[in-house]
Amino acid sequence: MAASAKPRYLVYIVSAIAALSGLLFGFDTGIISGALLFIEKDFILSTELKELIVSSVLLGAMFGSLLGGHLTDRFGRRRLMLVIAGLFVFGTIIASMANQVSLILLGRLFIGVAIGIGSYTAPLYIAEISPFELRGALVSLNQFAITVGILCSYLINFTFANHSGSWRIMFGIGLIPALMLSIGMFFLPESPRWLIRQGAIDRAKKILQTLRNKPDVSEEVNYIQQSLQVKKASFKEIFSPTIRPVLFLGAILGFIQQATGINTIIYYAPTIFQMAGFQNIAGSILATVGIGIVNVLATVFAIFYLDKLGRRPLLLIGLLGMFFSLLGLSLAFTLHTDITRWIAMFCTFTYIISFAFSLGAILWLMIAEIFPLEIRGFAMGLAVFNCWLWNFIVSSTFLTLLNSVGPSQSFLIYAAMCVFSFVFCYYKTPETNGVTLEQIEQNIRNRMPLRAIGQPVMSETE
User: Fold this and answer.
1) Which residue segment(s) compose the domain that 242 sits in?
2) pLDDT category, 234, cuts 50, 70, 90?
């Protein structure tokens, strides 16, 4: 029993350091919700320019997700994580020291590139170093770190709510986790699966022996090698009949995560709460701290239960919760009573809880599971690009949508998207709990239906 504690401890440490990328992801997407209220005091901002400041990170993330997919397959997961850390440091310095709006946009563009690469490189790295029975919980550490980053950004927003020029400090604090990631990644191993793909078998064995705390890892190595006994991947294979269904699944899951409205809440929470009746800036920002807290707690629930209850049940229950929460939020903005702000706050909290233990955790986990090793980095890059594309579309048009149709109709549109999402996930999303990445890959190459690719591989005698 004592022997099994050590590898779990080591794998958790490795995963936690890699998940600092997720913390920066959450911090740099959440900090803008409060910083924007102070940036507009120093600069003259139109509605379109406000949307651009928020969405400049997303433009960078789209570019990063496309650029990094090929690079992470060619140069390795660990090296890309080091590049990510450097981009976070560089972008944060530019944004926090900016004396004009264009420099804020430039700095956040670099941060966005880092987020775009890191949003799939970190969960991919963690998934590839994890034993299959812990994969769901360990990959979800990245989502947990994202929610912690968002909560930290909200607390920092509130702390500096009454300080002039505080948006510079808000941005600058992001240097701390960025430097921690830079230092930590120097001591972490490369993904053993990526090393085996490169032919570095002995090095991969040594890393697996350390991570698993056992001298014989030949079975796991053989399993990984068997998954590579296919022709070298090409651009054409990404869109081959074998891979196309899972690529479609990853793209639709990314679309669903954004089209159901999560980042309208994350990016514009103080604005929404001000519209609901929290008049002063400090009060509206304080209300968003509550969002950050329930986001973290619900993600902790997901970490503990993804490998026990499975992906599908949590995903479907979460989508139902999001649907009813958005209906309530829409209703709250039609009442115009003294309790409107409290109904809006309650429904926002239940929406965040439902999202956090479902789409929030499961998207990043599932896209790290469903693609064959030979094309995993590039295919994840395409799936994540689609996610960031819809994130950009939704967040960059939200204020315009609010001004055009009002908050009630806006949230009703997102509620309708939850209905579509539930139907799609019910019929198409597989249960990937309890099977290895290589088993999932074999099912994909056997052209099993999407919903069945998470089933254990049956031997010929069975």
Assistant:
1) 8-188+230-452
2) low
